[in-house]
TrEMBL record:
Enzyme Commission number(s): 1.5.1.54
Record's keyword annotation contains Mitochondrion: no
Name by which UniProt lists this protein: Methylenetetrahydrofolate reductase
GO MF annotation list: FAD binding; methylenetetrahydrofolate reductase (NADH) activity
GO cellular component, one term: cytosol
TM region(s), chain numbering: none
Protein family (similarity comment): Belongs to the methylenetetrahydrofolate reductase family.
Class in the EC hierarchy, top level: oxidoreductase
KW Heme (keyword) present: no
Domain of life of the native organism: Bacteria
Length: 318
Protein backbone atom coordinates (compact mmCIF):
# COMPACT_ATOMS: atom_id res chain seq x y z
CA UNK A 1 0.00 0.00 0.00
CA UNK A 2 1.14 3.56 -0.59
CA UNK A 3 2.46 5.56 2.37
CA UNK A 4 -0.05 8.30 1.63
CA UNK A 5 -2.87 5.70 1.91
CA UNK A 6 -1.46 4.44 5.20
CA UNK A 7 -1.56 8.03 6.44
CA UNK A 8 -5.13 8.56 5.19
CA UNK A 9 -6.31 5.31 6.75
CA UNK A 10 -4.80 6.25 10.12
CA UNK A 11 -7.41 9.05 10.43
CA UNK A 12 -5.10 11.48 12.20
CA UNK A 13 -3.38 8.91 14.44
CA UNK A 14 0.43 9.17 14.28
CA UNK A 15 2.07 6.08 12.78
CA UNK A 16 5.44 4.60 13.76
CA UNK A 17 8.12 3.80 11.16
CA UNK A 18 11.84 3.36 10.99
CA UNK A 19 14.83 3.16 8.65
CA UNK A 20 17.42 0.42 8.49
CA UNK A 21 20.80 0.19 6.80
CA UNK A 22 21.76 -3.00 4.92
CA UNK A 23 24.57 -4.98 6.58
CA UNK A 24 28.15 -4.77 5.35
CA UNK A 25 28.86 -7.14 2.48
CA UNK A 26 29.50 -10.66 3.82
CA UNK A 27 27.42 -10.18 6.98
CA UNK A 28 24.15 -12.13 7.10
CA UNK A 29 20.66 -10.73 7.61
CA UNK A 30 20.06 -12.43 11.01
CA UNK A 31 21.27 -9.48 13.09
CA UNK A 32 19.03 -7.13 11.13
CA UNK A 33 16.01 -9.32 11.93
CA UNK A 34 17.01 -9.39 15.62
CA UNK A 35 16.77 -5.60 15.64
CA UNK A 36 13.56 -5.39 13.62
CA UNK A 37 11.68 -8.07 15.64
CA UNK A 38 11.12 -5.98 18.81
CA UNK A 39 9.96 -2.93 16.82
CA UNK A 40 7.10 -4.86 15.24
CA UNK A 41 5.30 -4.28 18.54
CA UNK A 42 4.46 -0.78 17.21
CA UNK A 43 2.96 -2.13 13.98
CA UNK A 44 5.00 -0.03 11.55
CA UNK A 45 3.12 0.22 8.25
CA UNK A 46 6.43 0.62 6.45
CA UNK A 47 10.20 0.27 6.90
CA UNK A 48 12.76 2.26 4.89
CA UNK A 49 15.93 0.61 3.61
CA UNK A 50 18.85 2.88 2.72
CA UNK A 51 21.11 2.57 -0.32
CA UNK A 52 24.85 3.22 -0.19
CA UNK A 53 26.86 4.80 -2.93
CA UNK A 54 29.67 2.96 -4.63
CA UNK A 55 33.17 3.73 -3.41
CA UNK A 56 36.76 3.25 -4.51
CA UNK A 57 38.99 0.68 -2.86
CA UNK A 58 42.68 0.16 -3.53
CA UNK A 59 44.07 -3.36 -3.89
CA UNK A 60 47.78 -4.15 -3.43
CA UNK A 61 49.22 -5.66 -6.58
CA UNK A 62 52.82 -6.09 -5.33
CA UNK A 63 55.93 -3.98 -6.08
CA UNK A 64 54.20 -1.06 -4.35
CA UNK A 65 51.53 -1.00 -7.05
CA UNK A 66 47.92 -0.39 -6.13
CA UNK A 67 44.91 -1.06 -8.32
CA UNK A 68 41.80 1.08 -7.94
CA UNK A 69 38.50 -0.83 -7.97
CA UNK A 70 34.97 0.29 -7.42
CA UNK A 71 32.65 -1.52 -5.03
CA UNK A 72 29.51 -1.19 -2.92
CA UNK A 73 30.09 -2.03 0.75
CA UNK A 74 26.40 -2.40 1.60
CA UNK A 75 24.61 -3.80 -1.43
CA UNK A 76 21.29 -5.62 -1.33
CA UNK A 77 18.73 -2.88 -0.64
CA UNK A 78 16.06 -4.40 -2.87
CA UNK A 79 16.73 -7.96 -1.64
CA UNK A 80 16.39 -6.78 1.96
CA UNK A 81 13.17 -4.92 1.11
CA UNK A 82 11.71 -8.06 -0.39
CA UNK A 83 12.90 -10.31 2.48
CA UNK A 84 11.39 -7.97 5.10
CA UNK A 85 8.15 -7.65 3.18
CA UNK A 86 7.81 -11.44 3.12
CA UNK A 87 8.83 -12.03 6.72
CA UNK A 88 6.87 -9.26 8.44
CA UNK A 89 4.11 -8.44 5.98
CA UNK A 90 4.88 -4.70 6.04
CA UNK A 91 5.56 -2.34 3.18
CA UNK A 92 9.19 -1.55 2.53
CA UNK A 93 10.60 1.61 1.00
CA UNK A 94 13.89 1.33 -0.88
CA UNK A 95 15.95 4.50 -1.13
CA UNK A 96 16.87 5.11 -4.76
CA UNK A 97 19.83 7.37 -5.56
CA UNK A 98 20.88 9.50 -8.54
CA UNK A 99 24.58 9.06 -7.68
CA UNK A 100 26.09 5.83 -8.95
CA UNK A 101 23.21 4.87 -11.26
CA UNK A 102 22.45 5.58 -14.90
CA UNK A 103 18.84 6.37 -15.79
CA UNK A 104 18.60 2.96 -17.46
CA UNK A 105 19.80 1.16 -14.34
CA UNK A 106 17.22 3.09 -12.34
CA UNK A 107 14.52 2.04 -14.79
CA UNK A 108 15.40 -1.65 -14.36
CA UNK A 109 15.42 -1.24 -10.59
CA UNK A 110 11.96 0.33 -10.71
CA UNK A 111 10.70 -2.55 -12.84
CA UNK A 112 12.06 -4.97 -10.20
CA UNK A 113 10.17 -2.97 -7.56
CA UNK A 114 6.94 -3.43 -9.50
CA UNK A 115 7.37 -7.21 -9.65
CA UNK A 116 8.22 -7.32 -5.94
CA UNK A 117 5.07 -5.41 -4.99
CA UNK A 118 7.03 -2.39 -3.75
CA UNK A 119 4.78 0.66 -4.13
CA UNK A 120 6.89 3.29 -2.36
CA UNK A 121 10.27 4.79 -3.17
CA UNK A 122 12.34 7.49 -1.47
CA UNK A 123 14.10 9.41 -4.28
CA UNK A 124 17.42 10.99 -3.34
CA UNK A 125 20.37 12.56 -5.05
CA UNK A 126 22.99 10.95 -2.78
CA UNK A 127 26.17 12.59 -1.54
CA UNK A 128 29.53 13.06 -3.22
CA UNK A 129 31.61 9.91 -3.45
CA UNK A 130 33.96 9.31 -0.52
CA UNK A 131 37.11 11.37 -1.06
CA UNK A 132 35.38 13.81 -3.43
CA UNK A 133 34.31 17.24 -2.33
CA UNK A 134 31.29 17.82 -4.56
CA UNK A 135 28.56 15.64 -5.95
CA UNK A 136 29.25 14.81 -9.58
CA UNK A 137 26.34 13.33 -11.51
CA UNK A 138 27.07 9.83 -12.79
CA UNK A 139 27.47 9.70 -16.57
CA UNK A 140 23.98 9.00 -17.89
CA UNK A 141 22.46 9.60 -14.44
CA UNK A 142 20.48 12.40 -12.82
CA UNK A 143 21.86 15.60 -11.33
CA UNK A 144 19.09 16.36 -8.82
CA UNK A 145 16.54 14.32 -6.90
CA UNK A 146 13.76 16.25 -8.69
CA UNK A 147 14.91 14.72 -12.02
CA UNK A 148 14.77 11.25 -10.46
CA UNK A 149 11.28 11.98 -9.09
CA UNK A 150 10.19 12.89 -12.60
CA UNK A 151 11.57 9.62 -14.02
CA UNK A 152 9.72 7.59 -11.37
CA UNK A 153 6.53 9.58 -11.92
CA UNK A 154 6.77 9.18 -15.72
CA UNK A 155 7.34 5.44 -15.48
CA UNK A 156 4.18 5.16 -13.40
CA UNK A 157 2.22 6.54 -16.34
CA UNK A 158 3.90 4.23 -18.87
CA UNK A 159 6.54 6.72 -20.04
CA UNK A 160 9.71 4.66 -19.94
CA UNK A 161 13.01 6.29 -20.93
CA UNK A 162 12.93 5.24 -24.54
CA UNK A 163 9.40 3.87 -25.03
CA UNK A 164 5.85 4.71 -24.09
CA UNK A 165 4.01 1.58 -22.97
CA UNK A 166 0.34 1.98 -22.20
CA UNK A 167 -0.88 -0.56 -19.68
CA UNK A 168 -4.14 -1.32 -17.89
CA UNK A 169 -2.15 -1.83 -14.70
CA UNK A 170 -1.47 0.97 -12.28
CA UNK A 171 2.29 1.05 -11.89
CA UNK A 172 2.50 4.38 -10.12
CA UNK A 173 4.74 4.70 -7.09
CA UNK A 174 4.25 6.80 -3.99
CA UNK A 175 7.39 8.94 -3.93
CA UNK A 176 9.09 10.33 -0.84
CA UNK A 177 11.83 12.98 -0.91
CA UNK A 178 14.26 14.42 1.64
CA UNK A 179 13.68 17.71 3.48
CA UNK A 180 16.14 19.59 5.67
CA UNK A 181 14.84 21.53 8.71
CA UNK A 182 18.36 22.96 9.09
CA UNK A 183 18.90 23.45 5.33
CA UNK A 184 20.86 21.23 2.98
CA UNK A 185 24.58 21.98 3.34
CA UNK A 186 24.98 23.03 -0.31
CA UNK A 187 21.95 25.34 -0.47
CA UNK A 188 22.85 29.03 -0.27
CA UNK A 189 19.83 29.78 1.96
CA UNK A 190 16.88 28.13 3.66
CA UNK A 191 14.49 29.86 1.29
CA UNK A 192 16.43 28.56 -1.73
CA UNK A 193 16.42 25.03 -0.33
CA UNK A 194 12.66 25.20 0.27
CA UNK A 195 12.10 26.32 -3.32
CA UNK A 196 14.12 23.29 -4.49
CA UNK A 197 12.01 21.10 -2.19
CA UNK A 198 8.93 22.54 -3.85
CA UNK A 199 10.39 21.56 -7.23
CA UNK A 200 10.56 17.95 -6.03
CA UNK A 201 6.90 18.08 -5.00
CA UNK A 202 5.92 19.67 -8.31
CA UNK A 203 7.82 16.89 -10.11
CA UNK A 204 5.60 14.34 -8.35
CA UNK A 205 6.79 13.74 -4.79
CA UNK A 206 3.95 12.61 -2.52
CA UNK A 207 5.56 13.14 0.87
CA UNK A 208 8.69 14.48 2.59
CA UNK A 209 10.88 12.79 5.21
CA UNK A 210 13.22 15.07 7.10
CA UNK A 211 16.83 14.82 7.99
CA UNK A 212 17.30 14.13 11.71
CA UNK A 213 17.06 17.15 14.04
CA UNK A 214 17.32 17.55 17.79
CA UNK A 215 15.51 20.85 18.23
CA UNK A 216 11.79 20.62 17.45
CA UNK A 217 11.52 24.38 16.90
CA UNK A 218 13.58 23.93 13.73
CA UNK A 219 11.08 21.36 12.46
CA UNK A 220 8.06 23.50 13.35
CA UNK A 221 9.58 26.49 11.53
CA UNK A 222 10.46 24.31 8.52
CA UNK A 223 6.87 23.02 8.27
CA UNK A 224 5.52 26.56 8.59
CA UNK A 225 7.77 27.89 5.84
CA UNK A 226 7.05 24.91 3.59
CA UNK A 227 3.29 25.43 3.97
CA UNK A 228 3.68 29.18 3.28
CA UNK A 229 5.20 28.50 -0.13
CA UNK A 230 2.51 25.97 -1.02
CA UNK A 231 4.13 22.63 -0.18
CA UNK A 232 1.08 20.70 0.95
CA UNK A 233 2.21 17.05 1.08
CA UNK A 234 2.71 15.19 4.41
CA UNK A 235 5.97 16.03 6.19
CA UNK A 236 7.38 13.18 8.27
CA UNK A 237 9.98 14.07 10.93
CA UNK A 238 13.05 11.83 11.28
CA UNK A 239 14.36 11.23 14.79
CA UNK A 240 17.66 9.73 15.91
CA UNK A 241 18.44 9.02 19.54
CA UNK A 242 22.03 9.92 20.47
CA UNK A 243 23.78 6.71 21.50
CA UNK A 244 27.49 7.43 22.03
CA UNK A 245 29.67 10.40 22.95
CA UNK A 246 31.26 10.27 19.51
CA UNK A 247 27.87 11.23 18.04
CA UNK A 248 28.54 14.77 19.30
CA UNK A 249 31.13 15.14 16.54
CA UNK A 250 29.96 12.51 14.05
CA UNK A 251 26.34 13.58 13.59
CA UNK A 252 27.09 17.26 12.78
CA UNK A 253 29.93 16.20 10.49
CA UNK A 254 28.00 13.57 8.53
CA UNK A 255 24.48 15.00 8.60
CA UNK A 256 25.29 18.74 8.78
CA UNK A 257 23.01 19.40 11.73
CA UNK A 258 23.38 21.28 15.03
CA UNK A 259 22.96 19.81 18.49
CA UNK A 260 21.31 21.90 21.25
CA UNK A 261 23.60 23.03 24.11
CA UNK A 262 21.37 21.36 26.72
CA UNK A 263 21.75 17.98 25.00
CA UNK A 264 25.51 18.39 24.58
CA UNK A 265 25.87 19.24 28.28
CA UNK A 266 23.86 16.20 29.36
CA UNK A 267 25.95 13.91 27.15
CA UNK A 268 29.24 15.40 28.39
CA UNK A 269 28.24 14.67 31.99
CA UNK A 270 27.87 10.95 31.22
CA UNK A 271 30.44 8.51 32.59
CA UNK A 272 29.56 5.46 30.48
CA UNK A 273 28.11 4.81 27.03
CA UNK A 274 25.09 3.34 28.74
CA UNK A 275 24.50 6.70 30.45
CA UNK A 276 24.73 8.40 27.02
CA UNK A 277 22.16 5.98 25.60
CA UNK A 278 19.79 6.87 28.46
CA UNK A 279 20.25 10.60 27.80
CA UNK A 280 19.56 10.00 24.11
CA UNK A 281 16.41 8.03 24.93
CA UNK A 282 15.11 10.69 27.32
CA UNK A 283 15.75 13.47 24.78
CA UNK A 284 14.04 11.55 21.98
CA UNK A 285 11.02 10.76 24.20
CA UNK A 286 10.53 14.46 24.95
CA UNK A 287 11.04 15.37 21.30
CA UNK A 288 8.60 12.68 20.17
CA UNK A 289 5.86 13.64 22.63
CA UNK A 290 6.02 17.27 21.48
CA UNK A 291 5.97 16.21 17.82
CA UNK A 292 2.91 14.03 18.41
CA UNK A 293 1.14 16.99 20.05
CA UNK A 294 2.01 19.06 16.97
CA UNK A 295 0.10 16.49 14.88
CA UNK A 296 2.63 14.68 12.71
CA UNK A 297 1.42 11.90 10.38
CA UNK A 298 4.32 9.50 11.08
CA UNK A 299 7.19 9.45 13.57
CA UNK A 300 10.17 8.02 11.68
CA UNK A 301 13.23 6.69 13.53
CA UNK A 302 16.77 6.33 12.25
CA UNK A 303 17.75 3.01 13.82
CA UNK A 304 21.28 2.68 12.39
CA UNK A 305 21.59 -0.91 13.56
CA UNK A 306 20.53 -1.22 17.19
CA UNK A 307 16.88 -0.94 18.15
CA UNK A 308 16.84 -1.31 21.98
CA UNK A 309 16.72 2.50 22.45
CA UNK A 310 13.92 2.93 19.89
CA UNK A 311 11.95 0.19 21.67
CA UNK A 312 12.17 2.15 24.93
CA UNK A 313 11.16 5.40 23.21
CA UNK A 314 8.27 3.75 21.38
CA UNK A 315 6.91 2.26 24.62
CA UNK A 316 6.81 5.72 26.23
CA UNK A 317 5.31 7.47 23.22
CA UNK A 318 2.89 5.05 21.50
P1 LIG B 1 18.47 17.27 -3.94
O1 LIG B 1 17.04 17.44 -3.59
O2 LIG B 1 18.81 17.03 -5.36
O3 LIG B 1 19.22 18.56 -3.39
C1 LIG B 1 20.64 18.64 -3.39
C2 LIG B 1 21.09 20.09 -3.34
O4 LIG B 1 20.82 20.72 -4.60
C3 LIG B 1 20.34 20.95 -2.31
O5 LIG B 1 21.26 21.89 -1.81
C4 LIG B 1 19.25 21.63 -3.09
O6 LIG B 1 18.89 22.90 -2.53
C5 LIG B 1 19.87 21.78 -4.48
N1 LIG B 1 18.92 21.58 -5.58
C6 LIG B 1 17.97 20.63 -5.65
N2 LIG B 1 17.33 20.69 -6.85
C7 LIG B 1 17.91 21.71 -7.53
C8 LIG B 1 17.72 22.26 -8.82
N3 LIG B 1 16.79 21.78 -9.63
N4 LIG B 1 18.53 23.29 -9.21
C9 LIG B 1 19.48 23.78 -8.39
N5 LIG B 1 19.70 23.28 -7.14
C10 LIG B 1 18.93 22.26 -6.72
N6 LIG B 1 21.99 9.24 1.12
C11 LIG B 1 22.37 8.03 0.65
O7 LIG B 1 23.44 7.91 0.04
N7 LIG B 1 21.57 6.93 0.83
C12 LIG B 1 20.38 6.99 1.47
O8 LIG B 1 19.71 5.97 1.59
C13 LIG B 1 19.97 8.24 1.99
N8 LIG B 1 18.78 8.37 2.65
C14 LIG B 1 18.38 9.61 3.09
C15 LIG B 1 17.14 9.74 3.72
C16 LIG B 1 16.72 10.98 4.20
C17 LIG B 1 15.38 11.11 4.85
C18 LIG B 1 17.57 12.12 4.06
C19 LIG B 1 17.14 13.44 4.60
C20 LIG B 1 18.79 11.99 3.43
C21 LIG B 1 19.21 10.75 2.93
N9 LIG B 1 20.44 10.60 2.27
C22 LIG B 1 20.82 9.37 1.79
C23 LIG B 1 21.35 11.75 2.09
C24 LIG B 1 21.12 12.53 0.79
O9 LIG B 1 21.46 11.72 -0.31
C25 LIG B 1 22.00 13.77 0.84
O10 LIG B 1 21.55 14.65 1.83
C26 LIG B 1 22.25 14.50 -0.48
O11 LIG B 1 23.33 15.40 -0.28
C27 LIG B 1 21.07 15.33 -1.00
O12 LIG B 1 20.07 14.54 -1.45
P2 LIG B 1 18.65 15.18 -1.89
O13 LIG B 1 17.85 14.08 -2.41
O14 LIG B 1 18.09 16.01 -0.80
O15 LIG B 1 19.15 16.11 -3.08
Amino acid sequence: MKITDHIKNANGKTLFSFEIVPPQKGVGIADLYKNIDPLMEFKPPFIDVTTSREEYIFLERGNGLMERKITRMRPGTLGICSAIQNKYNVDTVPHVLCGGFTKEETEYLLVDCMYLGINNIVALRGDAMKGEKYFEPTKGGHKYASDLVKQIQDLGTGKYLHEEILSEENNSFCIGVAGYPEKHIEAPSMNYDLQMLKKKVEAGADYIVTQMFFDNQKFFEFVKQAREIGIDVPIIPGIKPIATKTHLQMLPQVFKIDLPEALINEVLKCKTNNDVREVGIEWAINQSKELLDFGIPVLHFYSMGKSDNILKIGREVF
